[in-house]
# Entry
Amino acid sequence: MIYDFFYKLFGSDIIAALIQSLLPLFIFILPYALFAVWWERKVSAHMQDRLGPMRVGWHGALQPIADIFKLFQKEDIIASDTDKVFFNIAPVLVFVGSYAAFAAIPFSSVFIGSNLDLGVFFIVAVSGFSVAGILMAGWSSNNKYSLLGAVRSVAQIISYEIPTVIIIITIVMVTGTLNLNTLSEMQSGHFWNWMIFGGPGSGVTKFMLIPFMIIGFGIIYISTLAEVNRTPFDIPEAESELVAGYHTEYSGMKFAMFFLAEYANMFAVSALVAALFFGGYQSPCGYLGNLFGLKWLIPIEQLFWFTAKGLFFVFVQMWLRWTLPRLRVDQLMNTCWKYLIPLAFVNLIIIGLITLI
Amino acid sequence: MAFKTEHMTLNMGPQHPSTHGVLRLELELEGEIIKAVKPHIGYLHRCFEKHAEAMTYPQVIPYTDRMDYLSSIYNEFGYAVAVEKLLGIQVPERVEYIRVIMGELQRIASHLVAIGTYGLDIGAFTPFLFCFIDREKILSLFEMTCGARLLYNYIWVGGLSHDLHPDFIRSAKEFVTYFRPKVKDLNNLLTYNKIFIDRTANVGILPLETAINYGISGPNLRASGFEWDIRKDDTYSVYNKFNFDIPIGKGLQGTVGDCWDRYYVRILEIEESLKIIEQALKQIPEGDVTSAIPKRIKPPVGQVYSRVENPRGELGYFIISNGTPNPFRVKVKGPSFVHLGVMNELCKGHMVADVIAILGSIDIVLGEVDR
# Structure
């Protein structure tokens, strides 16, 4: 849709594709990351009886921009014993992993980077891509803390992808589609059509699904939390143990890329959860556009609802971060392999049986 | 064919976010499992004991402040008690009461830092700031009394530098009523958190026998289940006039003497200190706080060992006098230094993350380890 527009405008498919792929970065990810950094600092400050940044702009709103400028100016330190090639590629790879996921996220019924039939699958696949970047960063830094952090991170992300994927399979089993846009369309209408409330069906099956959908949501939320390395699963970057984990040796813009990737990833997984369980871009209570007969208003409203849902889950992530302590590596693995995966499998089987009836 | 493997040596510190100062730990790792821990100290050495030989007795007091900078008042307290014992002087009742009030306030402040930073080590950021907000209130009470917030030089040999501020008693009472419910909040936020318990219970177990063999004292010894408190068992000042309990570790969440017990004993001690402060504020007599300060301190030839219950454990001063205004020798037996010795014993077989948990739970202050 967007591609066609730019194709007509410039008459060149390369330019159109380029613009299309850069759009989410400038329209959404960068402003969102700036906002999220400020927001995280504000949320944490108010939770801890502080004010947080107050000097730059209204209530410190321009603080992230000042920080970005600071990071631009910083010297890009590459320690002498690093493996330079991998050291330079790693932050790009990590960023690419989280950035590519945005291609398949449906912000509204018309604004979707690429309306893939395998949308969910694509997101899971490219998010896994950043694992390679993290391992590269940890290994090439030639720092023991980085290495430990990277090894932990890889083990963690790969383990927690399993419960995530099982829950996604559950949803796919119920809806019969991997296309996130179709998935969101299926959940249209009011909020009781959302997957967490048993989906668009009706009758006994819908009500039987509700408790298992809630369990599924719990599992996928916990495991996505672990995939983006947030507390209580922020073991790879455990500040008190490993200083900063795999990005200990990075400075300047390379560090900023890891940072940006983390926040982009936070939104990507939140968006995925929102699209799977909470109706995606669908409004919970009808559209103003329908009410007033303004058709062009609907996509904008959808964009609003989608962002609101995504940001809500990002907020919950921040909330957890500033409340909970951190697990230990073995406990983290126990949680995944001993509790989440078996539970997710049982959930899968039960939901499968329910849909069969 | 077996591969030749070797252990990885990891240097933790001296610049590390959670070694509580400039401690360097040499960890020998097999994967993430600790094989041995070797603490390297001395990065903060300031020759306190040698300095003291060149100073007159009152001039040593500011140096004692700087040893364990989280419990400065108590270091002065211990030193003053030792020199008074050497001189054989009695100090007025009011001075003793004020010393006890200040000492217990300092104990609360010190334990708040211990608890807060322990939460930070485990990964919980918020309790740390909550603790610091309350600690600030205690520091304001100190500031009201003697103008300093960290290094006081308040307790002098034979007396105090200032009497209490006229508003102090009221403010201190207000603080006690304000602070009581805060401990409950802290318990809800951190102490009984499932993740926190998982991280600390059954980790770094210090059996009573090992604790005694290593000379552990204070909250760490009590957490191993031994009721030993110098305030009660070898009483000094006016501690025998107050009614308080000695909390010991009971292994509520795991085994007796684990990290959680060491943490929880400190929480309970805060409550006991509040009790003492409340009683002392009620009973405090009137009087002059500077009357007993000797004009010239020149103790007779002799030596003395005197110990007090510092927030971290037994703080002992061994002073030799050769009859001059300068001490011949001031030797400090500090709890942090002694407690650091047991690190290797505690950490063996645990994981890297546990080293942080254990180090935080024995609550050392590097200023006093190195002196």
About this structure: Chain B has one domain: 46-370.
